[in-house]
Amino acid sequence: MVVRWDDLQLLHLVDELEQSGQLSELTNGLNLMRRMGGSDIDRNRDLGPFAGELVLAEKAGYMTWKELQGRFVGHPTWDGDPNFWLQQIMHIRPTLAGRDRVRGRVIQRPLPDPDEDDDRLISGMTLEEIARAIAETYTDRQLPRNLGDSGIPTEFLTAETNQPKWEYVMAVLERLHDGGSAARRTLREFIGGWLEGWHHAPPRADIRRRITALLAQEGWHTRDGCLVIGDKTHDAAGLLTPLGRDVRVAALHPEIRLVADRYIEGERMEVAIFEAFKAVINRVKMMAGTEGDGFSDKDPQLALAELSTQSGRDIQSGYRFLFMGAAQGIRNPDAHEQLKALGPEEGMEELAFASLLMRRLDVARSTRERTGDG
């Protein structure tokens, strides 16, 4: 008798075995094939078609499994060596969509919020990097509890962690990604909150920068602890995002933040730059008591280092040119010409330069105090 393999019948069987607790039949593909075909199996004839039906169910999003050795070069494929391949796949299970399909449940999926989610994918590569970073933070026993504490519903979690930790996290993220609009929003809130440090253990700064850049290349950006859609960017890692901008603004010198913050929030970076360097130059004038640069090599009004040593005099001379360059190359053109729009990354770099100069002024002293002038 010829066995007719059908992916939907196969899915029904996997679901029944899982519900009845007969998980030994799902430990590998050959066990499942024997259970479905019984004594009528012809290994020479049936291995390839059966493996193909399994693959069809997986590609349709109805079934999942783990491959014992991973998908590496030289690893057996279902159509190249189906016998070996079926022995390597393990923990065969229906997905949430697969269970709904075989149990006759019709899920009315709400439309995504067009302001936040247009159904674009978050790439598997990016989800894997997120999963690996989270897995490094917790033990096997901690993972389900901490994912739940971070807002992931229990139906997307399992108590089983008898697999590499990152694969457990990856499976949770994939269930959310493929689980409909509500689940996708949970995923986006989880990732956005993790990146912005809202959860128990935020990512390291270098990991946050890399993942933020990867997401931005796909058009995902953080807003109020949630990933939302936006323009795709193809800049290198280190891309300025709302999260990155807020962190970098917070690190600026307080006086620079005071004059620039409202213009940054209003996306008027060129005005923020102008006001920042105006504040630097006005502070130099106030501290030096002169309209000049105050840092001349001969008899300066402001000492930025200990001028009795050669090293101190070198610092004084170097910073003199930095202050002069800031005035002549950044502030003066803006004062005499129409302000030119700046990109956010270049703007933040110039603000960081203004912040550096302001911090140097924090440790400067007026030579007038030493000589008794004024």
Q: What features would you describe in this structure?
A:
The chain is mainly alpha-helical and 374 residues long. Helix content is 55%, strand content 6%. The strands form three sheets. Strands 1-2 form a two-stranded antiparallel ribbon.
Low-confidence stretches: 235-239, 370-374
End-to-end distance: 110 Å
CA radius of gyration is 31 Å
Helix fraction, binned, reads 55-70%
Number of helices: 16
As laid out across the biggest beta sheet, the strand order is 1-2
The general outline is elongated
Largest sheet: 2 strands, antiparallel
Question: Secondary-structure element sequence?
Answer: HHHEHEHHHHHHEEHHHEHHEH
Strand percentage lies at 5-15%
Number of strands: 6
SSE map:
Layout: H1 7-20, H2 29-37, H3 43-59, E1 63-67, H4 82-88, E2 89-94, H5 96-102, H6 124-135, H7 142-149, H8 165-177, H9 181-195, H10 205-217, E3 220-223, E4 226-229, H11 242-250, H12 254-265, H13 269-288, E5 302-303, H14 310-336, H15 344-362, E6 365-366, H16 367-371
Helix pairs in contact: 1-3, 3-4, 6-8, 6-10, 8-9, 12-13, 12-15, 13-14, 13-15
Protein traits:
16 helices; 6% strand; two-stranded antiparallel sheet; 374 residues; disordered C terminus; single chain; mainly alpha; two-stranded antiparallel ribbon
Report a brief summary of the structure.
By secondary structure, this protein is mainly alpha-helical. 55% of the residues lie in helices and 6% in strands.
